[in-house]
Design brief:
The protein is of the alpha+beta class. It contains ten helices and 16 strands. The chain is globular, with a radius of gyration of 23 Å.
Length: 395
């Protein structure tokens, strides 16, 4: 007769997201800001890491809640722009490619063609077979994370380099290879590169006709279709509000009704059902942001603000100095008492440096952006970027 195993309650803790009691061995490190948009910070006083999220929630929510936003066409666009501001081609680092959409002109067998732009405006064509229909995520750039488990076709990619300045070549090549790690790589307007041996392949005869067609349309207008999931941010913002509350507020927030609302909204898959959950906020494509956008704008990273407004704690975030969204995270002052500054608490996240500045006061940050009293660390970063002149693409 087998003995029933009684769990040791001293080794149990409750997951922030599913709210289930689980053994400590089932938990993993959770980055409050996903790593894909710069949530890794090399600072000893990093508050943006949680240890009360179970591994299952970490994985599942990363695929179904984080990815529809962090891999969206909008985020990709601004991520590329900000990365270019930081890039120094002499350091041989890659940057994200800019996604341009599905190419409507080019066809090859039963393959789909997607267009990207490289660091110097380089034209890139990625050909692949249709991903499993049930796994497709609207508005997601690249292979949908839900499709990876079904071994989707990685396809092949052509790179047409625009720049003739050799200093840019490593950045162009690395950015291209990083974007299509498991694809077959072809250089469309030059001999097969011998650098990084094995990463590029000679163009086979069966692709000669396609290659000729691609050569003809260089420097011409491309007809492209871009898709956007306007609901992709909703569940992500609720998850971010919940985890930000767990990271920065008092411990009584985690078990509160406010946290439950965010938790329920985050876990609800049906958009119509989500409408029934009384969460207040505005998304990237909703609301008028003129004043708040101007006040919080810092174009080299993300700006976070937690501020009490009319007895309610509001969480506002501006991504890459351009995309703004907010959500109410608490109605109980005891959740943030002693944790949030009276005029609001701000953190400036700097993905390219894997760092952040904060906590800052709202007034303190405003005086910096208005050039009244500079914040030294932010001022030094701004000067570093503004004083650097990118080498020309053409020589």
């Amino acid at each position: 007769m087998s003995k029933r195993i009684i769990p040791n309650m001293n080794m149990m803790k409750r997951c922030l997201y599913c709210y289930k009691l689980k053994d400590e061995s089932e938990f993993s490190k959770e980055h409050v800001i996903p790593q894909s948009i710069g949530g890794t910070f090399n600072k000893p006083d990093n508050p943006f890491v949680l240890h009360n999220v179970c591994e299952r929630c970490n994985n599942v929510l990363g695929i179904y809640v984080d990815a529809p936003f962090t891999k969206s066409t909008l985020i990709n666009m601004y991520r590329h722009q900000v990365a270019y501001e930081w890039v120094n081609p002499e350091k041989n680092k890659s940057i994200p490619l800019a996604y341009m959409g599905y190419n409507q002109q080019i066809s090859y067998k039963d393959y789909i063609c997607e267009n990207y732009l490289g660091p110097t405006g380089d034209t890139i064509y990625h050909f692949h077979k249709q991903y499993p229909e049930e796994e497709v995520m609207t508005g997601v750039v690249g292979i949908p994370p839900t499709a990876k488990r079904k071994n989707p076709d990685k396809g092949f990619a052509f790179l047409f380099i625009t720049s003739n300045n050799p200093i840019w070549l490593p950045t162009i090549i690395l950015s291209f290879l990083d974007a299509f790690k498991d694809s077959i790589h072809y250089l469309g307007n030059g001999p097969t590169p011998q650098i990084n041996k094995g990463n590029f392949t000679d163009i086979p005869k069966e692709l000669n006709e396609l290659h000729d067609e691609l050569l003809k349309i260089q420097n011409t207008h491309h007809e492209q279709r871009l898709s956007l999931d306007i609901l992709g941010e909703q569940r992500f913002m609720a998850k971010l509000g919940l985890s930000m509350g767990a990271a920065l507020l008092n411990n009584n927030f985690i078990d509160s009704e406010d946290a439950d609302l965010l938790r329920n909204f985050m876990r609800e898959k049906d958009p119509e059902e989500r409408k029934k959950i009384p969460i207040k906020g505005n998304g990237i494509l909703g609301g008028k942001w003129d004043l708040m956008e101007k006040i919080l704008s810092w174009k080299y990273g993300h700006t976070i603000l937690l501020k009490e407004i009319n007895g309610v704690l509001v969480f506002f975030i501006q991504y890459y100095g351009s995309l703004n969204t907010l959500i109410q995270i608490s109605t109980d002052r005891s959740h943030w008492e002693g944790k949030i500054k009276k005029d609001g608490t701000i953190y400036v996240l700097i993905p390219e440096k894997q760092s952040f500045v904060g906590p800052l006061g709202f007034t303190q940050f405003l005086e910096h952006t208005q050039k009244i009293t500079p914040i030294k660390e932010l001022h030094n970063i701004e000067e570093e970027i503004q004083n650097y002149i990118h080498p020309p693409f053409k020589i």
